[in-house]
Write a structure and sequence with these properties.
- The chain is α+β, with helices and mostly antiparallel strands.
- The chain has 2 domains: 3-86, Winged helix-like DNA-binding domain superfamily/Winged helix DNA-binding domain (Arc Repressor Mutant, subunit A, Orthogonal Bundle); 98-197, Arc Repressor Mutant, subunit A (Orthogonal Bundle), CATH 1.10.10.
- 36% of the residues lie in helices and 10% in strands.
- It contains 10 helices and 5 strands.
- The chain has a 3-stranded antiparallel sheet with strand order 3-5-4. Strands 1-2 form a two-stranded antiparallel ribbon.
- Helix 1 (9-23) packs across helix 3.
- The termini are far apart.
Length: 253
């Protein structure tokens, strides 16, 4: 007789709950089964699935929930209690820039997509820091290269992206018609805004050149002191300046 029959439904449920709390990350059915030992000792997957369903029912009236995401099952705080839980951290949550959020949305909805295609849709150049940040977060990755001259990289989302936004698959993304205002999503995001290269704000803060750059030959190195010395050394021009007559000038009529 295998040890699998020795586990009661209550024991299986408690062990799975403890494993999910201790893991701190999503666990698949296979990973949960491995907690019980080898194949001869672990319960059947159907028994584990029933325990998961029972745990989900237990969490309905609690502050936590057992949710299935792309990487497996995860115990987490319910979204409606984030306002209070966030007070455990003294550091103020950071927010994404709109440019980064738009870039992420384009990758999610139009993947695989190239950098040039993202720029065509947004109408501005894409900052390298935005792509780097998304890749460092492991939210997007290079999934291939477009078969055109230059072989531009094709970007797609990752399983980590799905896990972060509590999604099991891309099919659970809201439709574009459901997205009323991207600004309503920003408070849920947690890192610093990125100033996009070539954005209007940056251009407004920098002086705009109105003419061609002066060449080295036309740049004057004349200083104010040089001008003062020249004025003292040079005689006043004759016949070119209006005459300043004094009251005692004998030639004045």
């Amino acid at each position: 007789m295998s040890k699998a029959s020795e586990y009661s439904p209550g024991q299986i449920k408690n062990i799975i709950e403890a494993a999910l709390l201790a893991a701190g990350e999503p666990l698949t059915l296979a990973q949960l089964a491995a907690v019980f030992g080898d194949e001869t000792e672990s319960p059947e997957h159907t028994d584990i699935s029933k325990a998961i369903e029972s745990l989900q029912a237990d969490c309905e009236d609690r502050g936590i929930e057992l949710r299935k995401v792309a990487s497996g099952f995860r115990l987490q705080v319910k979204q409606e209690y984030q306002e209070w839980i966030s007070r455990l951290w003294t550091e103020r949550p950071k927010r994404y820039s709109r440019a980064l959020l738009e870039t992420l949305a384009l990758v999610a909805y139009r993947q695989p997509i190239t950098r040039g295609e993202i720029e065509d849709v947004r109408g501005v150049s894409l900052s390298s820091s935005i792509v780097r940040t998304l890749q460092e977060r492991d939210w997007i990755r290079v999934v291939g290269h477009r078969d055109v001259p230059g072989k531009p990289a094709l970007f797609g989302t990752t399983r980590v992206f799905l896990d972060y936004f509590n999604l099991e698959s891309l099919d659970e993304l809201p439709t574009l018609a459901e997205i009323k205002d991207m600004d309503t999503l920003e408070p849920e995001l947690e890192f610093e805004p990125v100033q996009e290269e070539g954005s209007g704000e940056q251009e407004a803060s920098e002086p705009r050149e109105t003419g061609p750059d002066p060449s080295p030959e036309t740049v004057s190195t004349h200083t104010a002191e040089d001008s003062a010395r020249e004025e003292q050394a040079e005689p006043a021009p004759e016949g070119n300046e209006p005459r300043q007559d004094s009251p005692n000038d004998p030639e004045r009529e």
